[in-house]
Amino acid sequence: MLASFLTGFAVSIGLIVAIGAQNAWVLSRSLRGEHRWVLALVCAGVDAVLIVTGVFGLDRVQQWLPALVPVLTWLGVGLLLYLAAQSLLRAWQGTSGLVASSAVAATGAWVLAGQALAISLLNPHVYLDTVVLIGSVGAQQPAPGWYALGAALASLSWFSALAGLGRYLQQWLRSPWHWRCFDAVIGLVMVLVAVSLLM
Questions:
Q1: Nearest 10 degrees: CA dihedral of 129, 134, 137, 139?
Q2: Is the pTM of this model over 0.70?
Q3: Stronger pLDDT, 130 or 194, i.e. the higher one
Q4: Terminal CA-CA length for the chain
Q5: Using an 8 Å Cβ cutoff, are 8 and 146 in contact?
Q6: 1-5, 109-113, 169-173: least confidently modelled range
Q7: CA-CA to 9 of 20 to 30 Å: which in 56, 69, 86, 97?
Q8: Which carries the bigger pLDDT value, residue 60 or residue 97?
Q9: Helix, strand, or coil here: 139?
Q10: Distance from C-alpha of 53 to C-alpha of 180, rounded to nearest angstrom
Q11: What is the model's pLDDT at position 104?
Q12: Cα 136 from Cα 61, distance rounded (Å)
């Protein structure tokens, strides 16, 4: 059981930690203090559902996904380019740094949760990582339930770390120049991921 749990944690963390649009977007929202724990729970919850689906139903899902992949790819590219344009526009026009305060965030928790669901579910890479790669390894484990638990816990740990990291970077990002650079990097990462999906 422990071996399967640790294998699930290791495989999952190795795939999830890779820099991608979802991670960059969650970190940028966390830095702004916009309901960061809601985002962490939504993203980790989506991963958990997809991991369990992959571990326990990979054969059936592989029959469904081929028809969905082209549609999901184009929707994902469109969403990534939209979010990238927002980040790059902020980088171009930005005149102020991060202001940490206890004020209510500009975007509501439900809206951000919906955006987190969209950026997670419209990203074809998430299905490749969670359902296909993590799921295929899990289906071969002696204790697939423990494997799935370890993989889901790795996702929760990672997104919680992104959410918690925001407050430590706030001081550095009070500088307008640093914040604009951060927005530019986030935008470019999203563009690169969108281009990689097309290629």
A1: -120
A2: no
A3: 130
A4: 40
A5: yes
A6: 169-173
A7: 69
A8: 60
A9: coil
A10: 39
A11: 39
A12: 11
Following DSSP, what letter does each residue of 31-99 receive, concatenated? HTTSSHHHHHHHHHHHHHHHHHHHHHHHHHHHHHHHHHHHHHHHHHHHHHHHHHHHHHHHHHH------
Mean pLDDT of all residues in the chain?
77
Please state the domain count of the chain: 1
Nearest to 119 by CA among 23, 18, 184: 23
Confidence at 121, pLDDT banded by 50, 70, 90: confident
Q: Calculate the alpha carbon distances from 80 to 103, 105, 126, 198 in Å.
A: 28, 22, 14, 12
Reading the block at residue 48, the tokens are 């958990």
Provide the token pair at 122.
Answer: 């419209």
Q: Which residues does 137 contact at the CB level (< 8 Å), separation at least 6?
A: 7, 8, 11, 147
Domain region containing 47: 2-198
Please give the residue that has the higher pLDDT: either 175 or 50: 50
Half-sphere exposure of 49 (CA within 13 A, CB side): 8
Looking at beta carbons, which pairs linking 64-73 to residues 24 or more positions away fall under 8 Å?
A: 65/127, 65/131, 69/124, 69/127, 72/122, 72/123, 72/124, 72/127, 73/124, 73/197, 73/198
